Amino acid sequence: MRQHDVAAALRQLLPADSVLSRDEELHPYECDGLTAFRQIPMLVVLPRTEEEVRQVLVTCRRLEVPVVARGSGTGLSGGATPHASGVLLSLARLNKILEIDALARIARLQPGVRNLQVSDAAAPHGLYYAPDPSSQIACSIGGNVAENSGGVHCLKYGLTVHNVLGIRGYTMEGELLELGSRAPDRPGLDLLALAIGSEGLLMVVTEVIVKLVPRPQLARVVMASFADVCEAGNAVAAIIAAGIIPAGLEMMDRKATAAVEPFVQAGYDLAAEAILLAEADGTPEEVADQIAEIEGVLSTAGATAMTVSNTEAERLRFWSGRKNAFPAAGRVSPDYYCMDGTIPRKNLGPMLKAIEAMETRYGLRCMNVFHAGDGNLHPLILFDANTPGEWERADRFGAEILELCVRLGGTITGEHGVGIEKINSMCVQFSEAERAAFFAVKAAFDPAGLLNPGKAIPTLARCAEYGKMHVRGGALPHSDLPRF
Amino acid sequence: MTAPPGATLSELRECVTAAHHERKRLRLRGAGTKDFYGECVVGEPVAGDALDLRSYRGIVDYEPSELVLTARCGTALSEIETALAERGQFLAFEPPAFGGDPTIGGVIAAGLSGPRRMYAGAARDFVLGATLLDARGEVLRFGGQVMKNVAGFDVSRLLCGSLGILGIITEVSLKVLPMPRAEETLRFPLSAQEAVAAFNRWSGQPLPISGAAWCEGAAYLRLSGAASAVRTAKEGLGGERVEATSAAQWWNALRHCSHPIFNNSSIWRLSLPDTTAPLTLPGELLIDWGGALRWYASEDRDPDAQNVDVRAAASAAGGTAICWRGPAPSTGRFHPLQPAVAELHRRLKERFDPHGIFNPGRMIAGL
User: Fold this and answer.
1) Domain check: are B62 and B159 in the same one?
2) B173, part of any domain
3) Which of A103, A456, A457 sits opposite B200 (nearest CB)?
4) Cβ A274 vs Cβ A251: under 8 Å
5) Is residue B270 included in any domain, yes or no?
6) CA angle, residues A279, A284, A288, in degrees to nearest 5
7) Contact flag A286-B347 (C-beta cutoff 8 Å)
């Protein structure tokens, strides 16, 4: 039997407790943060060293077994959804901080190190690691590299790709790759940029060098209320147009504030159609100046009320609602489906109006939280998986939002990745030739196609199937009618 | 009046597909400001017919409130910088112009960045999207015009610095930033070693640094940002204030490689971990990027002797060395790639440009 043979081969390389094959051992790995997709893997392996990772890859390559790498399993697009006849390669045991060099402002990490752990370890030096995905307590740095994770401070501090200096890892063939380094801008093609965000399709990362930045002396946040979502959207554009790059610029609609307020008591204005949170950081003088400027712009843009955090506790309280929006959605609804499209900021208002119309059409509620500063939307579609047909409606609702994102000049995923979840929507965003180019890149790194197969890039056949219902660009006849 | 050849995408496609079928090699070229740059012997251009891309030009889209500018490859950098300046914005990676007026396609294909690189980001950090015309004549759009986009592999960043070997970058979307409200440059009389130590110490503090360079016994530190932040930082740091015009001249000389040390006939460009103590190498030293970029300039010497010295020293320090100007050593102008990485270059080239028509040998000999 296949499972038995592969397990036997791997047990020759790894200690007994590193290869899991019994049903009850495999179950915890059946899904990542996207729980709507579940699959029991054939085997789970938990190597402890880089050399063990290499050996697992070489063995799986020889036996032609697919490999799905997994960090903390917090991803929201099913990037780590297991393969039924594959090995789930958990990097959780490679969890050491190998080096913090305060003078050089870098940290060298194994992939299983948690995102927040890096900032904690750097804190005594007045430094931190900037990207802060909402799952930062749990998510791993290896997973951040695979997904090119973002967070609420991307507009000013960038995504993972802007904060990783180098990676080390292996191809499916067991070849060591060192991409990037502490020395910037190495000659040759920027394979580091290609590997970051490659969703485990190109290589398995065993070491990451990240950039650490000085912790700003102070941060304060302005909370502003708006009577209209379009006005709030325009206010975001007005801040940017005024030459201000806030450290964070977030928006929540009334449905979102209503859901979180009873939960966290952040002090949100529940009468407002939308609230904005705009954060300034830097020296005390700089923050005071920027806050005054932001207040001026927001007031001109039609803010009906504004509050500025006066203490660190107050700042964290204002943010608490935003950071707890997802769990709050879980409190007001049995299930929720989180979308992740990005659009040009100027279209925030029209997008919200369109989502409102879709709510009626699909008969489902949707609350909206946005990384407004960079146009990244997280509509949370509320549904009950136990009610027949609701998940299917939520799924179509989500797909329509993504198609609209593409039509408005944006993208189907800003920071969560394509994974298995948005693979059909890739057919909408990319042409056949572009998808072929992605497969060509994949084949250059992984000619056997064994690393995380079936994720991130849809095959021609898959798009043809999807195209029977959806036409590229969302130009389906009667697109206003619900489809069942 | 008829448009010059290559003024439309369909003309470029025709030209490329014809070359692909005839296996005719093309040397992609914008304004030619970086003709010297690449894996080729000086005075002997890369093989192939020059394909001038300057006619495919124009800013396609620019919305200041979106912080995004999209332009066709042949658009002059000066045109882009003027349009941005009118709205108080700029390209924060400070692309070098080398005394000419490069095209934006050339800027991105070379992927070079100026003094702000360690503080604001490199050219690739500002690439949001790119359109590639590949050897088969396919027009492929990667990335987009938004800040956050993780759909598909990040091919647009891969194209930044690709030296045209994968195809023609016909259009790029770049993130732009508001110009800093205030800027000051401070001068400190320091040795190279002291300067490297100071740059690293300062970089670990929350200071609005946007440039840190050293030459001939003096370190220069540029501060940019909100007026209050620059003022506070300046007061805390000390040093001697450099008057605005001279400061602009100094940073421009670094950015465009027009500083007098670039008059030397042999120039090495070393990229190193920024904490690396000054290396014992021949020639005049210019330090940029807070210690991460080191230029060594001298008059011609035996190329192979220099190759051993400089490249080995850079490797030992964990960095790389490019022979920027002067006779190329036998191992090439660019630092040799790790074999597994070089193999990936070959495979990617093979897939995007199977007959090797684009800029053969410009990045790697024989590729």
Assistant:
1) yes
2) yes
3) A103
4) yes
5) yes
6) 60
7) no
What confidence tens digit (pLDDT) does each residue in A390-447 have? Answer: 999 999 999 999 999 999 999 999 999 999 999 999 999 999 999 999 999 999 999 9
Instruction: Cite the DSSP H helix spans in A27-178.
Output: 50-63, 115-122, 141-147, 154-157, 160-163
Q: Does A288 touch chain B (CB under 8 A)?
A: yes
At which residue do the structure tokens 């800093």 appear? B180
How many contacts (CB atoms, under 8 Å) link A and B?
273
Does one domain contain both B203 and B266? no
| B174 in the same domain as B289 | no
Same domain, B165 and B276: no
Q: Is there a contact between A286 and B226 if contact means CB atoms under 8 Å apart?
A: yes
Q: What's B140's domain CATH number?
A: 3.30.465.10
Q: What is the pLDDT of residue B366?
A: 85
Is A344 an 8 Å CB contact of chain B?
A: yes
* pLDDT tens-place string over residues B156-201: 999 999 999 999 999 999 999 999 999 999 999 999 999 999 999 9
Distance CA A375, CA A352 (A): 12
Chain A residue with CA closest to B117: the answer is: A184
* Residues within 8 A of B (CB atoms), A 3-62 only: none
Judge if B165 and B302 occupy the same domain.
Answer: no
H/E element holding A238? helix A229-241
H helix and E strand count, chain B: 10, 17
B124 lies in the same domain as B22: yes
Q: What is the CATH number of the domain that holds B216?
A: 3.30.70
pLDDT tens, residue by residue, B30-72? 999 999 998 864 445 556 788 999 999 999 999 999 999 999 9
Look over chain A and give the mean of its residue pLDDT values, rounded to a whole number: 93
With pLDDT > 70 as the criterion, what percentage of chain B qualifies?
Answer: 94
B112, HSE (Cβ side, Cα atoms, 13 Å)? 23
Q: Is the pLDDT of residue B22 over 80?
A: yes
Please check whether residue B26 lies inside any domain of the structure: yes
How many domains are there within chain B? 3
- Residues of chain A with pLDDT > 90: what percent? 88
* Among A318-332, B8-22, B118-132, B150-164, the least confident range: A318-332
Going by DSSP bridges, is the β-strand pair B284-288/B240-242 parallel, antiparallel, or unpaired?
unpaired
Q: Domains plus CATH for chain A?
A: 2-90 (3.30.43.10), 97-214 (3.30.465.10), 218-327 (3.30.70.3450), 333-474 (3.30.70.2740)
Q: Please list, residue by residue across B103-127, b when 16 or more beta carbons sit within 10 angstroms of its beta carbon and e when fewer do.
A: bbbbbbbbbbbbbbbbbbbbbbbbb
pLDDT of B9 over the 70 cut: yes
Domain carrying residue B116? 9-178
Chain B CB within 8 Å of residue A431 CB: yes
Cβ-based contacts of B232 with chain A (< 8 Å) = 283, 285-286
| pLDDT score for A481 | 36
**Last residue of one domain, picked from the residues B255, B285, B307:** B255
Asked which of B128, B158, B178 is the last residue of a domain, the reply is B178
Nearest to A240 among B65, B335, B345 (CB): B65
Write down the number of H helices and E strands in chain A. 18, 18
